[in-house]
Amino acid sequence: MAGRRQRTTADRTIGGLSFSQRELRDLLVAWLALGLAFTFFLEREFRRIVFLQFGGLSTGEILSTFAVSLLTVGVGFLLHELAHKVVAVRFGQIAAFQADYRMLGFAVLGGLVGFLFAAPGAVVHRGRLTAKQHGLIAVAGPVTNLALAVVFLVPFVAALLSGTGGFLWEVARMGLQINLLLAGFNMLPFGPLDGRTVREWSTPVFLAVAVPSILLGVGALFVL
Predict the structure, then answer these.
(1) pTM of the model
(2) CB of 32 within 8 A of CB of 152?
(3) How many domains does the chain have?
(4) 44, 45, 63, 199: which could join 189 in a potential S-S bond, CB 3.0 to 4.6 Å?
(5) Which pLDDT tens digit goes with each residue over 60-115?
(6) Do 15 and 100 share a domain, yes or no?
(7) Domain containing 204: what range?
(8) Dihedral sign (CA 150, 151, 156, 159)
(9) Per-residue pLDDT tens for 134-162?
(10) Which of 84, 100, 128 is the last residue of a domain?
(11) Catalytic residue from among 23, 43, 81, 170
(12) Which range has the top average pLDDT, 1-10, 121-130, 137-146?
């Protein structure tokens, strides 16, 4: 989600973008925390182990689920937020991601008890913007998730047709599902979500992105 404006001091450049030490730390912590939250959520036996109710889940299964979560949920989230930053910087903004540590803790605890809601933070930026620029910054995140869904769709279809499974199949399946859900959820026109900002700028653009995103997200939730 694109957030409020705030100044940040950058001291490292990666891929043409400037990052402060705090921002890099926040991105890393959010990535790992989301991976852990989804690992708890997806592996019921892992939750039992944490509560000292030891079951039959192996360390390999736990690490595999954690890796899948990092490569799908984590990557989808990171690139969503970086898309906001890229467009904001293009419009001359000082922009940085700031993690919400309270919400990250809530996500991990929620995954632990079998209920997951993740709002890991937002890109904050400083500078004067038009409504169109605000809208373009906001829509960049969901559009990036849709593009990632297409990337994951290719190995998903290939694995489906060949009947193969395993780690790569799970990465492809979950990557497709998660990115469609992220796009659909963030295009809802409520609260601090991207959809509200896009709708306030342009109803046609909002409908063009939100309708397929939400429909695909609902489909991904029940089909994949």
Answers:
(1) 0.85
(2) no
(3) 2
(4) 199
(5) 777 888 899 999 999 999 999 999 999 999 999 889 999 999 999 988 888 877 77
(6) yes
(7) 130-224
(8) positive
(9) 999 999 999 999 999 999 999 999 988 88
(10) 128
(11) 81
(12) 137-146
